[in-house]
Each structure stands twice: as C-alpha cells, then as structure tokens.
Amino acid sequence: MNETPNVTLARGDGIGPEITDAVLNILDSAGARLNFEEIQIGETQFLSGHKSGIAPETWETIRKNPVFLKAPITTPLGGGYKSLNVTIRKSLNLFANVRPSRAYAPYVPCQFENMDLVVIRENEEDLYAGIEHQQTAEVTQVLKLITRPGCERIVRYAFEYARAHGRKHVTCMTKNNIMKHTDGLFSKVFHEIAQEYPDIQNDHQIIDIGAARVAAEPHKFDVIVTLNLYGDIISDIASQVTGSVGLAGSANIGEHVSMFEAVHGSAPDIAGKDLANPSGLLLGATQMLVHLGQQDVAQRIENAWLKTLEDGVHTGDLFGAQSTQRVGCKAFAKAIAERLGEEP
Ligand code: NAD
C-alpha cells in the first residue's frame, strides 16, 4: 500500500465546502497520510454546460487515483440534468454501497441503544440503471434492470463483509412477492449463496415490513443486503433513527476506485450558515482511511469524535437534553481536533 496515496477530492455543493473544510482540518490534525487532488464537479459544471455535471477531462483524475472523497452534490431539477452521483457509481463500477448506522446513545438521543446495523446496497442496477423513457405526453416508463452477476456480486460481498467484520446475520430485503422476476432473482441468488456461509445466519424479509422494522426495532438487524432503491431509502431511515441524517458515512466500493461520502445530500436549506454537521463526511473519510490501511488514524479520529459527542458538544441537528454546547460546523471540527489522542 502506498505510504501517501493520492485522493481525488470534490468539495461539492450546498454544505459541501464547509463540511469538507471541517473534515480536512481533522484529517490533517490527526496525521492522515493523504495527497489530495482537487476536482470541480457538480453545480458549477452543470451550469457551465456539462449536462452530466463533470467535464470529460476530470474523469482522468478520478480514474487514476485509488480513492475519491466526495462531498454531496446538488442535482439541478428538470432541464434534462442527470444525477452525477448515479453517473459516477455506474462509470466507476462502484457496485457495493456500504452504509453503517449505529446508536450513540445516551450522548445522542436514540431510542435503541444497541442499534448497530450496516445496509449493503447494490449500487449499479435496479431502477437507477437510468433506462427511462417518455412514451407519450402522458405516459412515462422506467426499466428495472436486475442481472444474476450483479446479484451474485453484491450478495457475496455482503456475506464476506459480515465474516470480515465479525457480524453474525445477513437479512435480504426484496419485494419478491410482487416483482417475481427481478426481486425474485435477487432473493433466489441470496438463498443460494447463503448456503456457502453456514457460519452466518440469514433471513429474507419483504421490503415494506422490513423498512417498518428498521424504523421500529433497528437493534434486531445486523447486515442488510438489498436492491439499489430500497437500500437508498432504508439507509436514510436507519441514519435518521440514530439521531440525524448528518451522522452516517458511506463507502462505494469498486474494483479499481472506491468512493467515500456522507449519506445525506447538499442540504441547500442550511448551506453557508455554519450549521451543518460534518460527521457523515468525516465517517466516510474514516472508512476511506481503513480502506487505505490507515486504521490507526481512523481510530484516533473516531475516538476524538465520540469524545466530542460524549462531552455534549453538538451541532444543531443533534441538540437535545444531553447537549452542553450548541456549536456550528467549524467549532465542532475544532472540538474534535482538540480531543485527538483522547479515548471516549
Ligand atoms: P438532504 O440530505 O440534503 O437534506 C435533507 C434534510 O436533512 C434537510 O433538512 C437538511 O438541512 C438536513 N441535513 C442534511 N445533511 C445535514 C447535515 N450534515 N447536518 C445537518 N442537517 C443536515 O436531502 P435533500 O434536501 O433531499 O437533497 C438536497 C440536494 O442534495 C438535492 O439536489 C439532491 O439531489 C442532493 N443529494 C446529493 C447526494 C450526494 O451527493 N450523495 C445524496 C442525496 C441528495
């Protein structure tokens, strides 16, 4: 592993630049060994005529570096703009989206103290394959694409992830009672591959009741593997249940390049006000450090971050009975940097 790997960096839109500054300050203070190469993507590029939100030459930088730290991007509404997030995931074959959500109770109020689940979302197929048509003025259509190789790759990844992280149970969620071919294939492959992992328990739940259970009893789940759209929705539910969507980071794993980000979006309603919680992008960055073999730095950052939460230093989205100080994005990052080297 390269001692100081190159990292593609995009500061993103909305709250992106402020949470990126906060995260870069913490990474620097913690002694992360990273060489950043910054790129411009998102709103500026959409508005300068690139309908996909990225200039063609920028791909070269993204493809040559092993990892990409990306702040959230705004997708302009209407006007034929494509989601750049979807384009990046598909173009780089980022097949697995790993989204952990755990409770930080009692420091961040959450009803479920033992909640600690990971959503593993298929990241390239399903309704996000981008095959959508306007058939007539009043009829639209989108194709749901599910392939056996795609199902096998994500399901195997989920079981391997469970094994590597000492997790005991993988739950598959689909709507195979209605979509018998597409979701049916995903659940069939899940049951086949589960046989190869007798050390890991498994079950299948219909996505609607599964999502309701993630909201009502999230502590009963361990690893959840599911299709692209369902995974997008239940991972937001799970992060909100832990206290805020601002608390979840995410890894998008590919064969050559992997991308790390927050689960949430660019939050235009609070952009530029120093109100954003940088934790999602920070936890994405710690996933990236682990991926790059810098577990020691990742652990130091996570400890300092937990200690900050324990001390009651909270951004507005987390503010509650356990808070001692309500701080903005910058002060929260400073509080974390000051606690580096401390144990939670
Ligand atoms: P959002 O996640 O940006 O915001 C939802 C709500 O959560 C808002 O009230 C926001 O203020 C709050 N919130 C989000 N992140 C927060 C944080 N870090 N700290 C405190 N509060 C936070 O979702 P949205 O409003 O549906 O989307 C806004 C834009 O982001 C859209 O253009 C969407 O396409 C884009 N988006 C981008 C990504 C990405 O780049 N990965 C993901 C989701 C949405």
Automatic annotation (TrEMBL):
Keywords attached to this entry? Glyoxylate bypass, Magnesium, Manganese, Metal-binding, NADP, Oxidoreductase, Tricarboxylic acid cycle
Q: EC number(s) in its UniProt entry?
A: 1.1.1.42
Which terms in the Gene Ontology molecular function aspect does this entry carry? Answer: isocitrate dehydrogenase (NAD+) activity; isocitrate dehydrogenase (NADP+) activity; magnesium ion binding; NAD binding
Ranges in a coiled coil: none
Q: What class of enzyme is it?
A: oxidoreductase
The UniProt catalytic activity note for this protein reads: D-threo-isocitrate + NADP(+) = 2-oxoglutarate + CO2 + NADPH
The answer to keyword Calcium applying to this record is: no
What Gene Ontology terms for biological process does this UniProt record contain? glyoxylate cycle; isocitrate metabolic process; tricarboxylic acid cycle
Named cofactor requirement(s): Mg(2+); Mn(2+)
| Main function | Catalyzes the oxidative decarboxylation of isocitrate to 2-oxoglutarate and carbon dioxide with the concomitant reduction of NADP(+).
* Known partners and oligomeric status: Homodimer.
What family is it from? Answer: Belongs to the isocitrate and isopropylmalate dehydrogenases family.
**The protein's name in its UniProt record:** Isocitrate dehydrogenase [NADP]
Species assigned in the record: Microvenator marinus
In terms of the parent sequence, the fragment covers 1 to 344 of 480
